[in-house]
Design brief:
It contains 14 helices and eleven strands. By secondary structure, the chain is an alpha/beta fold. The chain has an eight-stranded mixed sheet, sandwiched between helices. Helix content is 44%, strand content 15%.
Length: 415
């Protein structure tokens, strides 16, 4: 046992400090109320920590544990009664209610805590939830890679030199096997000269990319995409490039997130003004209606949006808010801006198709930085969405060009 003396403005405050420092198992030995300039003083006794006792075995051991628990409960009850009586005398809670609560819990092996003392389950912070979701996606990616490896193990086509080259370019083993099987079904011999096989493979890969045939950009264009995709730079290139909208009078509308005033948000308005583009910010349907009246005289309207979260729930909330703002805008074409160097496992095609604003076409940025275009090929085939244009650098507007599926395949196969 150890004795401690504590001082405080009142005996109740001293008891609270004692319980905060030493726990609830303190025993009050002496209390002196505050007098004049002298603070209140209490003397308490606490148990010294002891090594865990080895539990006896059998029925006799259980009886021994029960007797010890009964004696400990009796002594604790007497000590608690003394402490609570003194505390109630100095303005603390009534001893009778605490005593009844303690007596109600006696004789229980695992006494239930009262509602007031039970700790609430803490909510999971948003950053932790995002990390958990990213972990789930990585585990799913590892499972898919393992499935691909199991599918392709010991397959006859994977030993072919051209198949090995496609695997190094990032294509998945099932994709390579499927391509070679189709060539064989069409009568091609995988052992024919390399140049002929490459061109035959290029034609087959082009057929799989058939849905990505470029489509003309018509009507109002709204750009969505995750952070780092280059949406604002893309809008500047579209507005200034002569092959796209550079010969038209173009205005830009910037849609604000719902929590723009409370959450950090970097507005691109000043950048658009630096390029002498008329720009307006919109945060409500009423502001959208007023803005559409102002831009009636422009030939082309481009709409910038906040960064799209990679978690599905926040992404859906943002896009539902944007869809509400875009209700009066017709006709409307949604472009999904994708950084071609990003981790495509974070953007599974089925996730993109489930978005409340499904894309009508894609725009690929940073395409000049891609080192393994095969992984991008697999993603485009799985999404089956047209590619409107591509960006090969930061220069405004010269680095923007139309997408050619044939040229993309030839680059992949080094033709």
């Amino acid at each position: 046992m150890k004795l401690h003396t504590l001082t405080a403005p009142s005996i109740q405050a001293a008891l609270l400090e004692a319980r905060r420092r030493f726990g609830d198992d303190v025993v009050l030995l002496e209390s002196v109320p505050a007098q004049g300039d002298q603070p209140a003083r209490i003397t308490i006794m606490i148990d010294e920590p002891q090594a865990p006792e080895r539990l006896p075995f059998g029925y006799a051991g259980a009886q021994q544990i029960a007797r010890k628990a009964t004696r400990a409960a009796s002594s604790t009850t007497e000590a608690d009664t003394a402490v609570l009586t003194d505390a109630s005398r100095n303005g603390g809670p009534p001893a009778s209610s605490r005593h009844r609560s303690h007596m109600a819990r006696r004789g229980q092996l695992f006494p239930a805590e009262t509602a007031g003392s039970s700790p609430s389950v803490p909510a999971i912070p948003s950053d932790v939830a995002a990390q958990i979701e990213r972990l789930h996606r990585r585990l799913a990616r590892l499972e898919r890679q393992l499935d691909s490896a199991l599918v392709g193990v010991s397959h006859r086509w994977l030993g072919h030199p051209l198949a090995s080259e496609l695997l190094r370019q990032g294509l998945q083993p099932p994709t390579v096997i499927r391509l070679f099987d189709r060539l064989v079904a069409q009568g091609f011999d995988p052992e024919q000269p390399d140049e002929q096989l490459r061109w035959a493979l290029a034609r087959e890969m082009r057929r799989q990319l058939a849905p990505t045939t470029p489509r003309p950009l018509q009507g109002t264009q709204v750009i969505i995409g995750p952070a780092g995709a280059g949406k604002t730079t893309l809008l500047l290139k579209l507005a200034r490039h002569a092959s796209f909208f550079g010969r038209r009078t173009t205005a830009v509308l910037v849609l604000l997130p719902e929590d723009a005033e409370t959450q950090p948000y970097l507005s691109p308005v000043e950048l658009y003004r630096r390029f002498e583009l008329p720009v307006q910010t919109i945060a409500s349907p009423q502001e959208m209606t007023a803005a559409l009246r102002r831009v009636q005289g422009f030939d082309q309207i481009l709409i910038d949006t906040p960064a799209l979260p990679l978690q599905e729930a926040p992404a859906r909330r943002l896009l539902l808010h944007l869809r509400q703002l875009l209700t009066p805008v017709l006709p409307l074409q949604v472009l999904f801006c994708l950084n071609a160097t990003c981790n495509l496992e974070d953007l599974p095609p089925e996730w993109v198709r489930r978005l409340p604003l499904p894309p009508d076409a894609l725009v690929l940025t940073h395409l000049d930085e891609v080192r393994r275009p095969g992984r991008l090929y697999d993603w485009l085939v799985a999404l089956a969405c047209p590619v409107a244009c591509i960006s090969r650098g930061p220069h405004v507007p010269d680095s923007l060009e139309g997408f050619s599926p044939a040229a993309f395949i030839e680059h992949l196969l080094r033709l």
